[in-house]
Each structure stands twice: as C-alpha cells, then as structure tokens.
Amino acid sequence: MVIVNALGLVSVALALVLAPLLQGVIHRTKAFFAGRQGAPVWQPYYDLARLLGKGAVYSRTTTWIFVAGPVVGLASLLVALTLMPLGGASAFLAFPGDLVLMLYLLGLLRFVTVLAALDTGSSFEGMGASREVTFAALAEPPVFLALAILARKTGALSLSGIMSGISPTLWVTAGPMLALLATALFFVFLAENARIPVDDPNTHLELTMIHEVMVLDHSGPDFAMILYGASLKLWLLGSLVVGLVLPAGLPWFLAWPAAVGGLLLLAVLTGVVESTMARLRLHKVPQFLVGALIMTLLALVLGAR
Amino acid sequence: MNHGFLIAAVIFFPLLGGLVGRMAGFHAGLARLLAATGAVLGGLAGALLSGDILWHGSRTVVTWPWFGTGYTLTLAVDPLSAFFLLPVSILTAMAAIYGAQYLGFHHHTGPAGVGAAGAASGVAGRGMVDPANVGLFASLLQTGMVLVLLAHDGLGFLFSWEVMSMAAFFLIALDDANAENRSAAWTYLLATHIGSAFLVLFFLFLGQRAGGLTFAELARATLSERAQALLFLAALVGFGAKAGFMPLHVWLPDAHPAAPSHLSAVMSGVMIKTGIYGLLRALTVLGAPPVWWGWALVVIGVVSGIMGMVFALAERDVKRLLAYSSVENIGIIAIGLGLGLCGRATAQPAMAVAGFAGSLLHVLNHAMFKGLLFLGAGTLAVTTGTRELDRLGGLFRRMPATAGACLAGVVAIGGLPPLNGFLSEFLIYVAAFQGLLGGQGFAWLPSCLAIGGLALIGGLAAACFAKVYGIAFLGEPRTQGAAEAAPPPALMSFAMITLAMLCGGLAVVVPVAVPGLAPVLSVLVPIDGQTLLLELLRGGALLRGVLGVAILLVLLVGFLAAVRRRLLAGREIGQTPTWDCGYAAPTPRMSYTGSSFTQPLNDLFEPLRAGTVDRPALSGLFPAPGRLATHPADSFVGRLYTPLFTGVETLCQRLRWVQAGRLQVYVLYIAVTLLVLLGWNLW
Q: Which molecular-function annotation in GO is an example for this chain (chain B) (predicted)?
C-alpha cells in the first residue's frame, strides 16, 4: 500500500536546495517592474546564512512553545515534502489518502506558528494569528475539493497517482475544468504563502500584516527556520499548481528541469501579480477565497459527467 | 476470565461504591473515596471485559430472570458493545480519580473562596453541592451507561436508557441554587424525554412486527420499505437527541457545563456516544439500508460539524465551548457513519469499511481528548476561579503539567498529526475519497460534501483550539486569579496526564490494531469475512503509512531541535520584553483576547449565528467612556425552539378552559365519561 520511491528523494533534495531561489526570483521580478536594480536572486540564501550565524533574543513572556514553533513547523514541512511528487516522478512516499496527510501537516505548521505567536502575549502577533486562522479555514475547502475532483478524474487517491494521471489527453478532454482548478489552486497558493493580494510580505506596518507579524519576536536560527520554511511552503504548494499544469509522462531528464522551470515561471508570475495589483482590504480576502471555492465548484459541475 | 463475574462487577462495583459512599455522607472525604473506588473498580472490570471480548471476537450472554414478573433480563456483550464499553470504562475511571480531588475543591471553596469575579462568571459549584450526592449520581450514570451497552432486549434497553438519562439529569441539576443550571436541567429533561418517546415508539413498533423484544428477535422482523423508513427516522430522532445531532443539540451546551467538570467529561466524552451506539444497534436490526440513510447522516454530520464549530468559536466559557465542540465531533462521527452506509448501500466495501471504522475510532479517540480537555477546563475553573477564557492567560508557567497534557488534547482534537484525532478523521476522509471513485450516477456527491465539510470543520477546529490554548495557557495572565493560580493536586494531574498519554498511545496502537475491528464491523457491514478483513488490512496499512510519517516527523523535530541547540551553544541569548512596536507601557490588558482572536470568523458567520452586541453610543469628538458587550447565542434556540415552544404553550393556554378549577365541572366530566363508557359497552 505504501510505496517508497527512492527517486522521490531527488525531488526533496531539489526543494531543499532551490526553494529559497523562488523568493529571490519574485523579488527580482518586482524590482524589474519597479525599475530598480534589486537584490541578487541569491539574496534569500545570504539572509539565511546570516541568521543561522547569529545568537537569539527571547521575550520574557515566552515559554518553550515559542521555541518549539519554528522547529515543529519546519519539521512538518520537511515531512510534507516527502509526500509531494515533482515532475511526474512519484514522491518519496505515496499511499492512498496521502494528500489529506500532506494538507494536515501544513495545518500542524500553522497551528504551532499561531501558538508561538500567541505565546508572546503581543496584541500585534495575536492579530496576525487571528487573521491567519481565519483565512486558512476558508482556504481548506477549495484545496480539498480540487484534489477530490482530480482524484475522481484520474482514478487515483494519492498525490503521486493524481499527478501522474494528469495527462495531455486529460487536458484535451477536460481542459476547462483543469484550468478552473489550476486558477483556484493558484489563488490558494497566493493566500497560503502570504502573497499579494492577501498579505504583503514587504509591508512595514504591523497592523496590516498577517504572516510577518506572527513571527515578529523570532530571531537568529529560529527565524532562519521560519524563513526557510516559508520558502519550502512556497515550493510545496507551487509544485501542486505546476503539477496540475505540466502534463505528466515526460522522460525524467526532461521532467525535472521542466518542473523546476515551471516553478520559476510561477515565481515570476507571482512577482507580476504582486507588482500589478494592490493588497486587498482585509474584509475582502474572504471573498477572494470564496471565489476560489466557487471555481472549484464550477469545476465540479464541469467534471460531473 | 469469567465473563459472568466481570459483568456483575462492571454493574455492581460502581453502584455499591455510590450507595455506600452516600451512606458515608457524614464524612465528605470518605464518601468521595468510596465512590471513586467503586467507579475505578467498575471501570477496570469493564476494560478487562471489553478487551477480552474484542480480543477473541466472541460474545457472552447472561440472562437474569426478573423474579415474579415472568420477564427475563438479557444482558449480552458482543464486540459492538465491548467496543463502546472500552471508552466508557477508561473515561469513567479517570474521571472518578480526578473527581476524588476535584470535589474537594468544591467542598472547601465556599462562595467566599471563589470570590466575586468567580461568582459573576459562573464557576460550577459554590459550596452548595454535596459530594456524597455527586458520587451517588455519578455511579448511577456509570451503571446506566454500562447497562445500555449490555442490554440485549428492548425493554432492558429502555430501562437502562432512563437510568442513565435520569442520573445525568440529577448531575446537571446538582448546583440548583443557580438559575441557569435549573433551566439547563429542565431543557435536558425535556430533550431526553422527547428522544425517549421516539425510542419507545421504535421498540414497540418493531417489537410488534417481530413478535419479541430481544435484539435477536427484532432483527428477524420483516419490514415493508415504509415501515423501515419510519423506524429509521424514529431511531434517528431518538438517538440523535442523545448524541446531539443538529438541531437536536440545544440541551447539550447548557447541560454539560452545569455538571461538575469530571462528569461533564463523562457526559461529553462517552454519554452522548450511547446515542451513536443506539443508532448502530438500530442499524443492525433494520435490515439492508437504502442509500438515502447515508445521505441523511452525511448532511446531518456536515451541518452539526460546521455549526458546532461556528457556535464554539464564539463562546468565551471554556466548558460551553467544549460542549459545542462535542456537537462538532458527533458531526464527524455521523459523516463517517453516513459514508459507511452509502458504501454499504452501493456495494463499495472499501468505502463502507473505512467509513464505519473511522467513525468507531473517532468515538474512542474523542472520548480520550474531550475527556482530557474537560478535566483541563475543570482545573482552570477551580484554580483560577473562572471559566471565562478572556480572564485567563499565562497558565503555562503556573501549571506546566496541566498545560502539557492539554497541549496534547488540543492537537488531538484539532485533528492534527501525529496524535490520535488525525487517524480517525483520516479514515473518514479515505472513505469519502473511495466513494469518489465508484458508484453509479450521483453516488459520489455525498463524498464531495463530506470532503468539503470535513475540510472546513478541520480549519475551524484548528482556529478554535488555537484560541483555547493560546488564550488560556500562553501570553500574560489577564487577571489576578490567573496570575496566582496554583497547580492542581496530584490525582487531578495524574488523570489528565494519563489521558494525554492515551491520546499519544492510541496514535501508535490504532494503526496496528485496526484489523481487530473485524468482529465489530461484521454486524454493520455484512460482507464475507475475507473481504472485510482484507479491507481492514488495507485501512491498517494506510494508517501505518501515516504512523510512519508521524514517526519521521517526531525524529525530524528531535533532529532540528538538536541542530538549533548546537547552533546557539556559546552564543549570546538575550532576554527582553515582547516587541510592542515601541510602546513604552504594555499591560496584559492590551494583549489579544479570545473574543478578538475569533472576531473575523464570528463576523463572517454572523448570518448563521444569533449573537447580539451591546454597543455604546459614541457621539461627539470626545465621547464618554462606554462598554461593549457581546452575547453569543445559539440561533437554533432563538429561531426554532423559542417560537416552537411558545406556539405550543399558546395552544395549551387555549385549552385551559377545560381545567376550570370548579368541583362541579370535574364531577360533570366524570359523569360524562361514565355515560360514554356505558353507551360504548352497551353498543
């Protein structure tokens, strides 16, 4: 039942090495649109290295929950990566229902991040945590339903099975449905990764932040783990969108470069979205996420045949 | 093991403990000790009995003639009752251990001990409750639940059902100096008897068709399609009222918080599950289910789950919040049952087995973590003097053992890996996903509804329990009561830590033990034993996959923690106040409260709730100080039950002229009755 595919470790390794690059590409794209030179695409790596070399400062209010937050969060992302296929190759671990486990591991990441934020007793971090759980709860149904529709269409119940079942033929027979699902998943990808139009990672005002404000008090290696985790999450959910768009069945020497290329393109697209539109007002965000849900429901109707 | 002895022990030990404890009521400590000992011995016997039956997949029948009546009481333990007996035994024993010291708090802290703040916020028990009575009714509740599970004929079942329900009524009404508790008890009494009325109908109608009342006879009844449908609906209402299916849940959030916390744990953790047990038992005697039964349960489950969470999110009273979360978890169990029934009706064994197995496991898991959290809530209430979340805070430092145990509880109830709550939800998801693949026509739609519903429920539950834990245990204490709270005494901590360890232990045991559910499931999914076992083995393999990933997670956490420690070794570690954006004089009153934490979600679901807000009128450039108060409310009460019962009352008022209150009129009634009877007899 549980399939272990050693080749899937290559996907995990690619993610571990290349994930921060996506952030760099997004920044570079935004700099291009703003007419700036911008930081080098490797800047996220320098940031991580610098943070890992530092000491840390802790609030007197916090307990070990605050320390455990980044550790457990990064660990759950690493485990989730072992379940995520890339470029048509099966994931390291694959079994029917693994998609539920993958999404619930992201839930665990969110839960510990929120607890760590509340552990500081700061009203700003409480505010961010409150928004995070609200939007996350609304983002769950579209993702689960999208994966359910794909499972029904491909006849597979594991992420790897679903991804390898999205063939060019399926795009021909059910193109509109897949396009709707890809758009819905892209919406969720933006929301879950704290990107514009849901959250602005570069904002300087604590009152308007969501994800950034939850981690205000973390520093040094703890903060490095959080930033690295954010890159991995971008990569993980990006793989979901790219896997949907990229037809399966390419030979391996094409599939992996194509997948990585797809992820980099997705990063460019994210940069374009961030450069060309403003952040939504907070009470509009639920409408954005319900919009994603409606798209999956439309896809459900289209795929009902 | 001699089953007859164990059955006697599981019934009579608690009863004996309760009765002798009541007689020793002159000495509070002795009374508590006796009652707790009886409950623990009964629980131990129950666990042994349940384990033995489940291990061998056997059944035991005991008949006790009811002298002089010609009625023979049939008690039987089959795998289905044994499965439900397990959580009942474990949780009642743990609650009794906890209660032995918890009731001491009640006894010693009089009204003055709790203080004005506590009295205002409604701490259960203000010195009015006699611990000897608590012990007596708790033992009756335990015996009643055990008898419900063991009864094997309609009459015995209804009798046990009443014993259990009435014992719970007295526990809810214990602290009857409080008007809210009295009202909660009456609501409960009404709800439970409406349920019982449907159950009486169910058993009498079915018994009349079957020509006998034992479950074996009932199962042989031949039923038309319509009779089968009516019986199912009667069972759904009768058992659903006990389980807390929406909209029959309204008694639950009032009643469970009113009882002493360790008995709230028993009620929310296992008593409401007897409703699920009854429904399953009814399904075993009603013949092959049509597919709409499955649809109905999935819809009920999704509604209960989502609405339960919507109401829970708005609550500030920890115990009411937990009670609403029980409605939510019953919803998850109902979704599993519904998927199981759909799978059975559409001949998809994989879906049926995963659905029923997931829902049974959720019964067990929920008993552990909900019991744990209610004990935790009780600890918060007696150590800080309030159950109001927004008055707590920072308790992690004050009571690390309680905080650690409750952390396991919130992770488990949030359905998050790696604890046990995830495993049962995972199996229910698997059932739903299996249902997507097969089936004719629209047979896959319940699966979609279940998946979407479970996803939203999961997201909301995580939000809700992040709030409970973050606001109560983390941050800074918001009141003096929270700042000065002392850790609970040893037995209370012991009970909570044991339940927390069971949450972790079940996460390891369940994946291995799932094939052992075969004898339990064989009565629910009548397929051949080979297929059943095969499907269970498949489910077990998936759960072992999850377990493997969970172990990987734990190892990685250890590894990353070691890396972090190594990196920080020898470096400078600073201590500061929390970053507050430069504000110079922060106070705990500025930190986020539970109400503010869930405000976005509450606003979002406002149309579904019926909460009210008293806003201060602000006018002018420098408005005077004002107070804002929010009152969470259950929209089913305001929009459904209040109008309904007001209407019934108005109708009854119209008939009041019958009761004129004059003797002559009553004599006239008697005369008319006699005349009519005479005429009828002659004719």
A: NADH dehydrogenase (ubiquinone) activity
Half-sphere exposure of B97 toward its Cβ, with a 13 Å CA cutoff?
A: 23
**Domain of A274?**
3-302
pLDDT tens figures, B117-158: 333 333 444 445 677 788 889 999 999 999 999 998 888 899
DSSP B660: -
Element of type H or E holding A102 = helix A98-119
Q: Which helix or strand (DSSP H or E) is residue B575 part of?
A: strand B573-576
- Listed in sequence order, the residues at least 6 apart from B106 whose beta carbon sits closer than 8 Å to its beta carbon are B125, B127, B129, B131, B260, B382
Encoding tokens for residue B682?
């002659």
Provide the number of CB pairs (under 8 Å) joining chain A to chain B. 259
Give the closest-approach CA distance of A216 to chain B in angstroms. 7
Residue whose C-alpha is closest to residue B513's, from B360, B334, B668: B360
Partners of residue A79 in chain B, C-beta under 8 Å: 549, 552-553, 556
With an 8 Å Cβ cutoff, is A171 touching chain B?
A: no
Q: Using CB atoms, which residue from A56, A60, A123 is nearest to B590? A: A123
Residues of B in contact with A148 (CB under 8 A): 432-433, 436, 447-448, 451-452
ipTM reported for the complex, 2 dp = 0.96
* CA dist B516 → B57, B419, B426 (Å): 8, 20, 18
- Predicted TM-score (pTM) of this structure: 0.94
Mean pLDDT is lowest, of B489-503, B522-536, B662-676, for B522-536
Question: How many domains would you assign to chain A?
Answer: 1
Q: A52 — contact with chain B (CB < 8 Å)?
A: yes
At B109, the pLDDT band (50, 70, 90 cuts) reads: very low
DSSP secondary structure string, B451-496?
HHHHHHHHHHHHHHHHHHHHHHHSS--SSHHHHTPPPPPHHHHHHH
Task: Please report the beta strands in B113-183, taking only residues with DSSP state E, as ranges in sequence order.
Answer: none
Helix axis angle for B79-108 and B131-150, nearest 10°, is 170
Query: How close is the nearest chain A Cα to the Cα of B117, in Å?
Result: 23
| Residue pointed to by tokens 């469970």 | B256
Confidence of residue B584 (pLDDT cuts 50, 70, 90): low
Q: How many CB atoms lie within 10 A of CB B599?
A: 17
Contact criterion met (CB < 8 Å) for B548 and A141: no
Confidence of residue A296 (pLDDT cuts 50, 70, 90): very high
Question: CB neighbours of A135 closer than 8 A, spacing ≥ 6?
Answer: A191, A198, A210, A285, A286, A289
The pLDDT value recorded for residue B292 is: 93
Question: How much is the pLDDT for A98?
Answer: 92
Identify the bridge partners of residue B630 per DSSP, sorted by sequence position.
Answer: B613
Q: Is A82 on the interface with B (CB under 8 A)?
A: yes
- Chain A CB contacts of B560 under 8 Å are 71, 74-75, 225
B416 vs A104: CB contact, 8 Å cut-off?
yes
Decide the pairing of beta strands B60-66 and B573-576.
unpaired
Overall average pLDDT of the A196-221 stretch: 84
Residue A12 forms contact with B (CB below 8 Å):
no
> Which residue, B549, B544, B425, B568, is CA-closest to A78?
B549
Q: Is A198 on the interface with B (CB under 8 A)?
A: no
Element (H, E) at B498: helix B490-513
Strand partners, B73: B64
At B573, is the secondary structure helix, strand, or coil? strand
User: Residue B578 and residue B593: Cα distance in Å, rounded?
Assistant: 16
Instruction: Provide CB contacts within 8 A for B546, sequence distance 6+.
Output: A101, B417, B422, B423, B426, B511
In degrees, to the nearest 5, what angle opens at C-alpha B363 toward C-alphas B411 and B134? 90
Do residues B14 and B143 touch, judged by C-beta distance below 8 A? yes
Among B463, B542, B576, beta carbon nearest to A137: B463
